[in-house]
Design goal:
The complex is a heterodimer of chains A (455) and B (240). Chain A has 455 residues and is α/β, with parallel strands linked by helices. Among the domains of chain A are: 68-298, NagB/RpiA/CoA transferase-like (Rossmann fold), CATH 3.40.50; 397-452, no CATH class. Chain A is built from 23 helices and 10 strands. In chain A, a hairpin with a 4-residue loop joins strand 5 and strand 6 (215-220). Chain A starts with 9 loop residues before the first helix and ends in a 16-residue tail after the last helix. Chain B is α/β, with parallel strands linked by helices. In chain B, 53% of the residues lie in helices and 14% in strands. In chain B, helix 12 links the parallel strand 7 and strand 8. The chains are: A alpha/beta (455), B alpha/beta (240). The interface between A and B is large, with 64 and 68 residues.
Chain lengths: 455, 240
């Protein structure tokens, strides 16, 4: 679904979100619920810190040898009967998937949840080619009906309350209004069941790819992931290259960490491991499996200073605890990935020119790092991007002048005192930076600064 | 025992009463605080906004002013964290300065940390009054790892009742330059913090960072809930 990137308007987007009481209430409720569930889920885990260390080390190892693991995965998956495609960017991924489907005359597509497919704006491309693409994850289904993009990587409709969903279903599905979550789920299930049974192809993402066996691993809760990947004869999976883990033997650490971090579950309802195509004697499975490995700038990130963001396993815990995210919601960030991990990926994958305001969307409070299951150094990564923003000339010229002045004045006691005497150093700098917004929120400087009374 | 007192630019410029309270407290515990007159700021505003060169020039000045062997004490978790954790980053390519930064980091104490670990002030039976709640500021809590010390000090106040704040460690929205760059979000966060404070029913809210307390005081005033906002140093000094 293409909505156009609006990251450059982060401040306007977020100012609007701050004034939207319905959104704020939905976000507060959801973020608090997930945050609390996460804490409960980790409470009984013995040595959770050790588990995080282990998972972090595995992700480090993968990134240190990523090309080799990708090669290994391609060979293993191919041996298991899959066809693996390498897509260097979003265009290539869309082309590859569009062609696979078109060549087989596929018209009706069911889709499991995939943020990478959002990143490459796959649905719009397939719809333009005359295909019907139906999102089958309940949250994704809701926002597809609304014509929106996901606002959270795990809980795509986190910004909507049940009354909004009730109205949406009544409008689009011809059912009487209800805001009972169970009734709404049943309505969606009925509508989707028909789609599954008549689909020509299923498209899914993947949470991990095991290099040794060529297996795809999916964590899901609604059962739709299994339907998408096993009911239609053709399964196309799209995932980004950094989703590798060296071996299926590494999976248990992530089984213990990912669901707990994401939704506060000890494990998701389903953990699917898909190795190649359906074999004689198999009860289920697609007869044809295509795996599209997306690069889209990741190889470049791998060799640079921001490499560690590729450790991320997309649990969304960082956004649930982020004070900024929970206040403004995911759409404010203006691209596929929101919150702390999202703003970093947005700047790296779409470029500073299209995204620089989002690198300021953090108070550097560090709540994100406290919950990251694989110890992504989120705050240092955000600081790095701010330096890059300055270096590449995307910072505000007034701010730049203000900081240069600050750098000189605060390195000289004479200038510093002078600044204080001229109604404080911060006062005018703050005025330049933020106008009345700041000046109105700070007290006036003291008549006698502390330095004149200090021992 | 002699310590070098880093007042911080905010205390120096806006809240001299916090500096004076810090001095009185330290003296009560037999500590002789010396305020190096050349001091200015730790450079955090520039560092956090990505201006490393400007931050480095301030950091270099700080390190020359606070050179020596005495412990450095500051009534700010955020500024202590800047010196301890970010100065080494700023000088990672300069071995001589890096060594200086590391040594300064080792000598650096946030006030409540010093009062508990070195001065044992929590065992002194200081007096307090009313009901007090506590905001656990971000860099103090997560960067320095100082969680228990302020609580131990508050718990030791005879005559005061401590009331925990819901989500005490959630950011108040100050964030240094964040408040200037994204004021809508900053104000929204401050409002939420103010609501958490009001929900405790406490008559005083305290903390260890003047930036956060300044932001909180403004939000309480806008909210119209009469709650006193005071730095922990002030509360403790009043009970001497």
């Amino acid at each position: 679904m293409s909505h156009g990137q609006t990251s450059l308007r982060f401040r306007e987007n977020s100012a609007r979100a701050v004034g939207d009481d319905t959104l704020r209430a939905a976000m507060r409720h959801a973020a608090d619920t997930f945050g609390a569930r996460r804490a409960e889920a980790f409470a009984p885990v013995a040595d959770a810190e050790g588990l995080r260390d282990r998972a972090s080390a595995i992700r480090d190892e993968v990134l240190s040898n990523l090309p080799a693991y990708v090669e290994r995965f391609v060979a293993s998956a191919t041996r298991a009967g899959a066809t693996v495609h390498r897509a260097k960017d979003a265009d290539a991924a869309r082309e590859i998937i569009g062609s696979i489907l078109a060549e087989r005359g596929a018209k009706r597509i069911v889709k499991g949840k995939s943020m990478v497919s959002e990143e490459v704006e796959l649905n719009a491309h397939l719809e333009a080619a005359g295909m019907e693409v139906v999102e089958t994850d309940l949250g994704e289904y809701i926002i597809q009906l609304e014509g929106e993009a996901p606002s959270h990587i795990i809980v795509p409709a986190i910004h909507k309350n049940r009354r909004q969903v009730g109205n949406l279903f009544a409008k689009h599905l011809g059912v009487p209004y209800t805001d009972d979550p169970q009734a709404l789920t049943k309505i969606a299930r009925k509508a989707l069941r028909e789609k599954f049974l008549s689909a020509d192809a299923g498209i899914s993402g993947a949470n991990f790819a095991a290099a040794d066996t060529g297996s795809l691993v999916l964590f899901t809760n609604e059962g739709n992931g299994r339907m998408v990947t096993t009911v239609p004869p053709l399964h196309v999976a799209i995932l980004s290259i950094e989703k590798m883990i060296p071996s299926l033997a590494d999976l248990p650490a992530f089984i213990r960490l990912l669901p707990r971090s994401a939704t506060g579950q000890p494990i998701t309802s389903y953990v699917s491991v898909i190795t190649g195509t359906r074999k004689p004697g198999d009860a289920t499975g697609a007869t044809e499996l295509h795996i599209v490995l997306l690069d889209n700038g990741r190889t470049g990130i791998l060799s640079g200073e921001s490499r560690d963001i590729l450790k991320c396993i997309r649990c969304g815990a960082c956004m649930n605890v982020c004070p900024v995210y929970r206040t403004v919601g995911g759409h404010s960030y203006g691209w596929t990935y929101p919150g702390p991990m999202g703003l970093i990926l947005t700047a790296l994958l779409t470029g500073m020119e299209k995204s620089h305001p989002v690198v300021d969307a953090s108070t550097l409070c560090g709540a994100c790092e406290e919950v990251c299951p694989v110890r992504v150094p989120l705050v240092p990564l955000i600081l790095q991007l701010r330096r890059r923003k300055v270096r590449e000339g995307f910072s505000d010229p007034n701010e730049k002048r203000g900081m240069a002045l600050f750098g000189k004045a605060a390195a000289s006691p004479f200038l510093f005192s002078l600044g204080q005497r001229l109604a404080g150093l911060f006062w005018p700098v703050a005025r330049v930076l933020g106008g009345k917004d700041v000046a109105g929120r700070m007290p006036a400087p003291a008549k006698t600064p502390f330095r004149r009374k200090a021992p | 025992m002699r310590v070098l007192l880093f007042g911080t630019c905010l205390v120096d410029t806006f809240f001299p009463e916090v500096g004076e309270a810090t001095v009185r407290l330290l003296r009560r515990f037999g500590v002789d605080p010396v305020f190096p007159k050349g001091q200015t700021c730790c450079g955090q505003p520039a560092f956090n906004a990505g201006y490393d060169a400007d931050a480095r020039s301030v950091a270099r000045h700080f390190l020359s002013v606070f050179d020596g062997a005495d412990p450095i004490v500051t009534p700010s978790g955020s500024c202590a964290a800047m010196v301890k954790h970010h100065y080494p980053e700023l000088f990672r390519d300069d071995p001589r300065m890096l060594e200086k930064a590391r040594r300064a980091g080792e000598r650096m104490y946030e006030l409540s940390q010093f009062l508990v670990r070195v001065a044992k002030a929590h065992e002194a039976g200081l007096r307090g009054k009313g009901t007090v709640t506590y905001h656990s500021s971000c860099h103090l809590t997560r960067s320095l790892g100082v969680r228990e010390e302020p609580l131990a000090l508050l718990a030791s106040l005879k005559g005061a009742t401590f009331v925990p704040m819901p989500d005490a460690a959630r950011c108040c929205g100050f964030g240094g330059t964040f408040m200037a760059k994204l004021p809508e979000i900053s104000c929204a966060l401050a409002e939420e913090k103010a609501a958490s404070i009001a929900a405790t029913g406490a008559d005083t809210v305290t903390g260890c960072d003047s930036g956060c307390l300044m932001n909180i005081a403004d939000a309480m005033e806008r909210r119209g809930t009469p709650v006193r906002v005071a730095h922990l140093a002030q509360l403790l000094a009043e009970g001497l």
